Amino acid sequence: MKKIKPMTNQEEITVSTETFCQPDIDLSVWQALTQNQYSHNSLLSFQNDWRTFVNHCIANRLCPLPADVTTVRDFAELTAKERKVSSVRRYTVTISLVHRCHSYKDPARHREVKFLMNRLLQEKSDQAGQATPFHLGHLEALTEKLEKSDRLKDIRDLLIWTLSFEGMLKRSELAALPFDAISTSTVPYLLNVGETPIELSNHASLMIDRWFEISGITDGPLLRRINKHQQLGEKPMDHSSIYRVFRRAADELGMGQQLTFSGQSPRVGASQDLAEAGMSIKEIQHQGRWKSPAMPAQYVGNTQARDEAMAKYKRKLEKE
Q1: Which value, to the nearest 10 degrees, does the dihedral of the CA atoms of residues 266, 267, 268, 270 take?
Q2: pTM above the 0.70 mark?
Q3: Which residues does the UniProt record annotate as the domain Tyr recombinase (predicted)?
Q4: Would you call 141 helix, strand, or coil by DSSP?
Q5: Which of 85, 110, 131, 165 could pair covalently with 266 via S-S, beta carbons 3.0-4.6 A apart?
Q6: Where are the domains of the chain?
Q7: Cα(98)–Cα(96) distance, rounded to whole angstroms?
Q8: Residues near 227 by Cβ (< 8 Å), separated by ≥ 6?
Q9: Over 70: is that where the pLDDT of 303 sits?
């Protein structure tokens, strides 16, 4: 946790605890809790992660704050059945942050939770298979097919595939992009992911102009749901919507029976394309904003580098 001074006033703690026992908490409250130490996208992640945890607690009649060790351990184990270990890890980081800001004992730092995370990490690393790569060739074929379409959904989906590939975006990063994540003060445009600016191609910049023109949006979420009547909604896309967009990509390529793309596919495909172009694992790690070289190493088939990075990460978990 960054240098955030925990609450000490008992009345303040009590009032804030009541607020954080609810699933829907305004971003301004998160900003105040974290004392302006985190970016807008980080606050969105905290908000979403905490909502998931609180909803789990409400459904099972458990207390989210302060939560006991068993609650956090069981939540992490249950979540791991459907989410990647990196997502589970992020949930525990958010739980830890909220407890420590309220001066409560941190259940996520208990050895039972640490041992579970260690086991999940090992199990996940032993599982064969990864997301189907989405390569530049796939993107170029989709662009050729759909770039002249006037349908709102075609323009949005093509923009999603392009930004995901060029920015090597995680699904959560893609879903959280606000309108002002695009900086149009330079050409080509910049895509700001958290505090990281990513230079886009001229083609991507033109697609963004077209999306702004046809959607008419001037604020709020950059990428939004579209109903069956081709009407643009106000809410951002969720993970299920993004999954359907990538499932559509395989269908549009006439490969729906052979390929199953997911929100992770562009990161895998871009990593492999960059490695093929001669970029090192470290350079790919930096490009994709990974904290460890383990995942890009796995994506490009460098299992030795992956195993070394995994071992380093596990040692870090044990020390925390």
Answers
A1: 80
A2: no
A3: 129-312
A4: helix
A5: 165
A6: 10-126, 136-278
A7: 6
A8: 233
A9: no
